[in-house]
Specification:
Blueprint (H helix, E strand, L loop, with lengths): L8 H20 L3 H30 L7 H28 L24 H14 L30 H10 L1 H8 L3 H5 L5 H28 L5 H25 L19 H10 L3 E3 L2 H6 L6 H6 L8 H14 L6 E3 H14 L19
Parallel strand pairs: 1-2
Helix pairs in contact: 1-10, 1-13, 2-3, 2-9, 3-9, 8-9
Length: 373
């Protein structure tokens, strides 16, 4: 049952007006401190990555003759994983939303940035920036609802395959970057005979090239720098990528699939007003309560609500915006979904386990708006 009340057309207009004004005032205030922040993130990605790779090389070459190999290998893995997490979450994801286009820095151009992950940035801009952010949690329009693999809401039709989804979810988390890489290919349509093989082959070309570059960099080039002692480097790169995948999966799932998160039918967005769009973003998103470290490591997606409201606003502003957003939601009787990481993750696990089994769709939740003013 929704914990928010429906809004009249007049209230929806007021809700949107207040949120739009908050966004506009924040964009007007952008300046040097925001530029300094993202450049500090770029430097952190560069230096932690270099330090991590250097320690892995040291562990491989020196550690081969010394029992203290783990004292270099473990820190090397953790630093490399940290670099990859920061690059994906706080740098790549946010830059590709156009959050720093105002700086006119070619290295931070959201239209051309390419990130350190198996999937292409072009496909991510389609599946995430457009499809997901436009049609957030609309069944049949937002492919991020279960990613075509998981049943997370009772409104999704149950199939026997979902009995295996606890295991599928674990494998998906470990291989998350590869799942994201092929998301735009819509392989289900090919298996169903709705997409021709020649079309799929053409769509796969840029994806395959990006996959090959990532494999070549992490599993061929850098391990070969250690010569005959390549194995610790190879395993270190693999472990760092898995740690990054697990963390990314955790943050994304906790931001969208908690107990209070809602999905919506296609007809709910017909003639959708700006205010109704804001309400849908709110009811389909979940925040994570934490401090600055969690904000940084999550790419500020600990403020998923603010991100869905203002995807083009630099994410380092979300913590400050959250105070005002929460107050606006309270004034309009809208539930602001937030909780600690363990609490939200527990709800995600419950969804994965519960909806692996048949369940009836609940009665329709409250409408996004009242039918009469």
């Amino acid at each position: 049952m929704s914990r928010s009340r429906p809004l009249s057309a007049a209230e929806l207009h007021g809700f949107a007006t207040e949120l739009d004004a908050l966004r506009d005032s924040t964009l007007a205030d952008l300046g040097q401190r925001d530029a300094d922040y993202i450049r500090a993130v770029v430097a952190a990605v560069r230096y932690t990555g270099a330090a991590g790779r250097a320690l892995l090389w040291l562990a491989a070459v020196v550690g081969a003759f010394h029992p203290v190999v783990l004292f270099a290998w473990v820190p090397g893995v953790l630093l490399l994983a940290l670099s990859k997490i920061l690059e994906n979450m706080e740098l790549g994801h946010n830059v590709m939303h156009g959050q720093y286009d105002w700086m006119r820095d070619p290295a931070l151009d959201g239209r051309t940035y390419e990130w350190d992950i198996a999937g292409t940035s072009d496909n991510w801009r389609k599946t995430h920036n457009y499809s997901h952010h436009t049609w957030t949690n609309v069944r049949g329009m937002d492919d991020d609802i279960g990613y075509g693999l998981l049943r997370l809401f009772p409104e999704q039709r149950w199939k026997p395959f979902y009995l295996f989804q606890p295991l599928v979810a674990v494998v998906f988390a470990i291989l998350f970057e590869w799942g994201i890489a092929i998301q735009e290919l819509r392989l289900g349509r090919w298996f169903a005979g709705k997409t021709k093989t020649a079309v799929l082959r053409e769509q796969f070309r840029p994806v395959g090239r990006k996959m090959a570059r990532q494999i070549g960099k992490d599993y061929v080039l850098f391990p070969l720098l250690a010569g005959p002692f390549f194995l610790p480097v190879l395993l270190g790169n693999l472990t760092a990528n898995v740690l990054r995948n697990l963390w990314t999966w955790l943050i994304i799932f906790c931001g969208h699939f908690t107990a209070d998160a809602e999905t919506f039918p296609k007809d709910s967005v017909k003639g959708e007003s700006r205010g109704a769009w804001y309400v849908r973003q709110l009811r389909g998103s979940s925040n994570l309560a934490g401090g600055r470290l969690l904000n940084l490591l999550s790419g500020n997606l600990s403020h998923q609500i603010e991100h869905h409201f203002f995807p083009d606003v630099p994410a380092n502003r979300y913590a400050g915006l959250a105070v005002h957003v929460r107050a606006i939601c309270a004034r309009y009787g809208q539930h602001y979904n937030t909780g600690s990481l363990p609490r939200q993750f527990g709800q995600v696990v419950w969804r994965i386990l519960r909806h692996a089994f048949p369940s009836r769709a609940p009665r329709p939740r409250l409408q996004l708006q009242e039918t009469t003013q």
